[in-house]
Automatic annotation (TrEMBL):
Subcellular location: Cell membrane
Major localisation: membrane
UniProt GO cellular component terms: plasma membrane
One Pfam match: YitT_membrane
Protein name (record): YitT family protein
Taxonomy, superkingdom: Bacteria
Chain ranges passing through the membrane: 12-31, 51-72, 79-97, 112-131, 152-174, 180-200
Membrane topology: Multi-pass membrane protein
Keywords annotated in UniProt: Cell membrane, Membrane, Transmembrane, Transmembrane helix
Length: 221
């Protein structure tokens, strides 16, 4: 009976992670990409690296993600990292399918404030659901979560601060107008992430305080 309940619980978390990832892919392609909004987080840093150093984003993303994943393995455990891999893989699939087959065009070039609002709500809800499911949508979200638990700051606030810093640096290669509207989207997303990860009890996946899993094993002995 316990195994059955564990299986149902895992399927529920997996469904939440996949749905959240789908929302992220939808927002990034149909809102951000189609309306020329830029990116924060590790994606924004990788684009900056390409502009300043000529390094391919495919390489710089790995350089940024791998150390964070190793730290997450230590502090959050294998299940969290596995769920993150599921989200990252699903995002690649969802985004690729939308890019190839979706005929939906959401043209908000004449109403960028609405585009920023929609982007913020959808990406915030998507990222928040992935976190509630027990994973993360990428290395930057993991870093935000770890800093949040370390410093006791709301995860959405950390998300906003990190992305605003990256977006400020992105002014080296991005137009001011699109960057400012992306900042609005990031701020909205940060508040939605905080709401999504804190609303309702019990939570789908309890987020433990940072404590190395190795240390837990030693204490049990």
């Amino acid at each position: 009976m316990r195994n059955h309940n564990n299986g149902v619980s895992y399927l529920l978390r997996l469904t939440v992670i996949l749905f959240g990832t789908f929302l992220l892919a939808f927002a990034y392609y149909h809102i951000n990409y189609q309306n020329h909004l830029t990116e924060g987080g590790f994606v924004g840093l990788s684009l900056l690296g390409k502009y300043v150093l000529g390094v391919s984003p495919s390489i710089s993303i790995l350089v940024l993600d791998i150390p964070v994943l190793l730290v997450a393995m230590l502090f959050k455990g294998k299940a969290f990292v596995c769920n993150t891999f599921v989200s990252v893989a699903a995002f690649t699939i969802f985004y690729g399918l939308m890019e190839r087959y979706s005929g939906l065009v959401i043209n908000l070039q004449d109403n960028l404030p609405l585009a920023a609002l929609l982007s913020g709500v959808l990406t915030g809800l998507g990222a928040g659901l992935v976190l509630r499911g027990g994973g993360a949508s990428g290395g930057d979200d993991i870093l935000s979560l770890l800093i949040s638990e370390w410093k006791g700051i709301k995860v959405g606030t950390v998300f906003i601060l990190m992305d605003v810093i990256v977006l400020a640096l992105s002014l080296f290669y991005m137009p001011l107008k699109e960057t400012l509207y992306t900042v609005i989207a990031v701020v909205v997303a940060g508040y939605v992430i905080t709401l999504t990860t804190s609303l309702g009890k019990p939570k789908l996946a309890k987020m433990p305080k940072i404590q190395p899993t190795l240390g837990k094993a030693q204490n049990i002995r």
